[in-house]
Amino acid sequence: MATGAGGPRGRGRPRTPGAEDKILAAALEEYGEHGWSGFTMDAVARRAGVGKSTVYLRWHDKDALLTEAVTRHGIELTTVDTGTLRGDLLALAGNLLRHFHSPAGWATIRVTFDVASAHERLGGFSRAVSQVHGRQVELICQRAKDRGEMDPGIWPGVVTEAIYGAAMINSLSERLEGREDDEAYLDERAAWLVDLVLLDITR
Amino acid sequence: MATGAGGPRGRGRPRTPGAEDKILAAALEEYGEHGWSGFTMDAVARRAGVGKSTVYLRWHDKDALLTEAVTRHGIELTTVDTGTLRGDLLALAGNLLRHFHSPAGWATIRVTFDVASAHERLGGFSRAVSQVHGRQVELICQRAKDRGEMDPGIWPGVVTEAIYGAAMINSLSERLEGREDDEAYLDERAAWLVDLVLLDITR
Amino acid sequence: MATGAGGPRGRGRPRTPGAEDKILAAALEEYGEHGWSGFTMDAVARRAGVGKSTVYLRWHDKDALLTEAVTRHGIELTTVDTGTLRGDLLALAGNLLRHFHSPAGWATIRVTFDVASAHERLGGFSRAVSQVHGRQVELICQRAKDRGEMDPGIWPGVVTEAIYGAAMINSLSERLEGREDDEAYLDERAAWLVDLVLLDITR
Amino acid sequence: MATGAGGPRGRGRPRTPGAEDKILAAALEEYGEHGWSGFTMDAVARRAGVGKSTVYLRWHDKDALLTEAVTRHGIELTTVDTGTLRGDLLALAGNLLRHFHSPAGWATIRVTFDVASAHERLGGFSRAVSQVHGRQVELICQRAKDRGEMDPGIWPGVVTEAIYGAAMINSLSERLEGREDDEAYLDERAAWLVDLVLLDITR
DNA sequence: CGATAAGCGAGACGGTACGTCACGTCTTGGC
DNA sequence: GCCAAGACGTGACGTACCGTCTCGCTTATCG
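The joint structure predicted for all components is written out below.
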């Protein structure tokens, strides 16, 4: 992961400010267009208009770059406090479905699976994904529990797995079948999904 | 995909019968051990004890080999007729969870996601996955409908997506957290999942 | 080298009579067109209209085939008894120049040089070339000595080397310069060459 | 042929200075030890201690590398001004005989013949050989003509062909017969050859 | 005549080298 | 000391050819 800003302000030329964002964006675009094979560091550097050394100065290798590129965009997921559990979950599920249907969101999924396959280096990324994504659901559940909408004994992971799993499989099957994006359909699926989850946790 | 059997019985030396299976098995093992990067055709050929030409004679490139290796093993999933919808779904969910936790099953997922990302060549594979996996659920649902256990108006795709999505996300989260396999836990999850689905389709 | 005819007349199907000549001819043509690199056994077999096994049944490997193809054609060189040393040498030199300018003759030279570079297996070929070519000159010289035209003390090798070396370098330089074949020029060169040799051996 | 030195001084890392010489030397050694077959680019790169990309960056393919390797060493032939035509020719003939008996010189011959067979790409190499080798003889002849030792009407090519052809055939026949190198014999042959040429051009 | 044997065209086989390409590192001059 | 450019050593890619092998077939001799 890139060395965060700040630091003791070294002596030489400072790192070009916009470089990191340009590179991360280029990485995501390349990954989206060409997939893992066909995703080359040279192409990323060329597309970002920087030299390879600038890339390798910030990320140790290909995996690290791609992982962070994907994490950054996956992290943008936010939730709103609508006042009801159903409203919160509806917003989350809708965002998630839309996210997974976007190139960046889809890339997130793929990288997550790749990372989950490599036992050695999953530390940072899995933690990031688990925490960032899981945290949102925990917040929602906590609010619901505070309001008395939800049994305090229920583990929020159940909700997380249900929503994320459904969104993932939905996105996958649509892609396999070549279906087109359809906002109304996504909303409908979100509603169906949330009601199912509510049914389950109040069962 | 390898040229199917049969044909007009060409004139030259026939292709070595066992070669394809050996190569596919070697491919799966290599993929399981080393992941996509680190999966090399030379290693597959060496492990299978064949020359590279023998591999490339059957599969056009790395992707094609891996795709078929994974499809073959993903296709082995079968179901049993236990006499009840719940029993059928329990067997399916249990098999699926165990499958996705195995190296070959996990590889299936990864390759499926990769294939779903490449719009050009998903034809054969996505059809295979959709049909083979979807067909099992359709059979189960048809039997349930015949027995009057299930409302004929329900689209089996709902069941498929729920079970596969849950199995997938479950396998993913276990891997991300480094959890170990646990038969009892898998059975418990399967039961929980099936009951959720039943709750949904009888809602 | 191919097993000559005759033999005890085995039991199985006899070797197809014309095959050897077809293969040798095809080999020479391939060599002439594509050189050593680009000279492939598959192409030879295809051009000759036979299977590879038919080729390998007769020659142990590529070298052996090419060597014999070239030897066969190099061996066709014959001389005539014109009654005078100068006439005999003129005929020989003319034939030789023409031979080296033909594709087959040029191939002979190239293969000879290749063979001369491989110390292990030059046995058969070098003997063939030395004897076949050297023998002609020896015969001419013997007749000349018998007629009293030539000092018996002169080693015929001198004549051989002079004529063959000149013909070889002549052919080489013409090729390097892209000059076209020219019968009259060849005859002129032959005459000049022979007179030079005569000058030398009567010196 | 490798891009000559100089140039506009590009921006990236300069090509490693010694690499070309190391590679050319390694190529000659490999060729000398293993001949054309058995001459592999991997082995050349390994022996030179460089990567294959470094080789292919400079030479387009195997032929180009070998051709230049041989040209470089063939070009080293120089002559001395001994003050007499016979002395100059003796020195040249001696050098040439020794050159053709050395592995590098012999390789020059072989490659020259190969190049002379490929009509497409003989441009650079044949010109190099013709000019470099022919130029030496022209210089010798010019000096002889200036001194009045040689009829100005004689074309120096006659001398070139005679000396080079004799040296070539001599080296070839020695190799075919497996004769060992013998300095005294080479000098004797050189003297005999030069006297023959002198006899001819003063005839 | 049928059995036996070898040649034959076709082409798959295990290897190995080809020439290309990407990785991650290193080395310039310029900023 | 960061940067763009690009050469470097390494190693996998997918192709092509080597020399061997295994088919089904043909063409001979021998019993």
